[in-house]
Design brief:
485 residues; alpha/beta; 16-stranded mixed β-sheet; two-stranded parallel ribbon
Amino acid sequence: MDGFLSLPGVVVALAVIDFIIRLTCLIYVPRNRRPQTATAWLLAIFFLPPYIGVALFLLLGSRRLPKGRREKQAEINSFITETTEGIEEVKHDHPWLDPVVELNRHLGAMPLVGGNTAKLFGTYDQTLVEMTAAINASTKWVHAEFYILALDKTTAPFFDALEAAVKRGLEVRVLLDHVAGLRAVGYRRTLRRLRKAGVHWSLMLPVQPLRGKWQRPDLRNHRKILVLDGNVAFTGSQNIVDSSYNKRGNVRRGLHWKDLMVRFEGPIVAGINALFITDWYTETGELLMREANTVPRPLPSDTLDAQVVPSGPGFEGENNLRLFNSLLYLAQERIIITSPYFVPDESMLYAITTAAQSGIDVQLFVSEIGDQPVVYHAQRSYYEALLRAGVRIWLYKAPTVLHSKFFTIDDEVAVIGSSNMDMRSFSLNLEISVMVHGKTFVDDLRKVEQEYRDTSRELHLEEWMTRNRASAVLDNVARLTAAVQ
């Protein structure tokens, strides 16, 4: 009898606990989150068994880095602001750009600096050759920071160059993302090679709870940076790995990645190097004062103004999203976006569609195929709204994954770097973006855009509305999951 009576009591108790959990989540989850993100989390908690949903939220619900890391970021920001005061020497005469420059300075501490040159590299193997040659030409030190750094047949010369630099007596420092490295083919082989070469290296955002190193595991350092002697810097979208990423599925499908990197010279190199110094300090506790004070002199005439914009969970705001939206609203004639993973938040979607509806020529380059199914389908869920607004969508033909990350505003301003236009890059990844003011640089990017256009097919609304219904359902479901940040 007692057992029979206790069963309803247990059921009632569980129901009460379930109700309290859900009510608590309704109060707590929306706090300081976008409505769409809060809604996605609440749906996950309510549709899954509550204990599983809450466990996932506790594991992945906070995008803040540990307090110690945030304090180091603030310390470095103050140092950068103090040491770069008055070095701008810019030449632009466009008052409309000043508020964006001030925004970037306020958010990321980096100034706009003049006297720079930039050269684009859009061929995967040639980019590796150029970076390897730059390492071989270096005479003081090498700083390399890549989301994925993997030893394979394609990248072996890059590693050989690092070892040769060490043998010449240079200080060679390397940072690579921990989780991305673990997922890459040949991770342990890569670390052995770095040790053998005598390189000083460290993992970025390591997930090693037994060593007291822990944060939300999908907060990643997605930057791609190479700095030589403080005079030359490369950044952009390309990782140090074969263009197939050495994965069986990619090789079977014939997938290979197409990227875009830029080589900078001039004072902007100090800003790019400052990001490496920041990340090195965060991971190792060593502040590279001598290298931090290396600021190249402005180069002669016909040069560019440029500004580094760091972003990621170490900052209070979403620096890259704020920059992107500010520029989108300033466009008068043309916006051309290239992003492999295009999953905008509501503010960016409104900025882009508003521009298109205002008669501005808005074009988007994305891949015809995707290597990440959830992101690929989430991206596709935005195509109808974009096409109806008048955005022209270009699908880069398979089997290439168009991995370049840049956009141009009119004929004056461009942004290039590691940041995708998706909510992961806005909120969860540490990224680097470089805003460049200068018609010559935009002209060079126009040639790249035309190359992409010639290798793409345009997607039209009529075609899109007749797509497979099951695929449309997948797109919409994936869109919900993309908001869970």
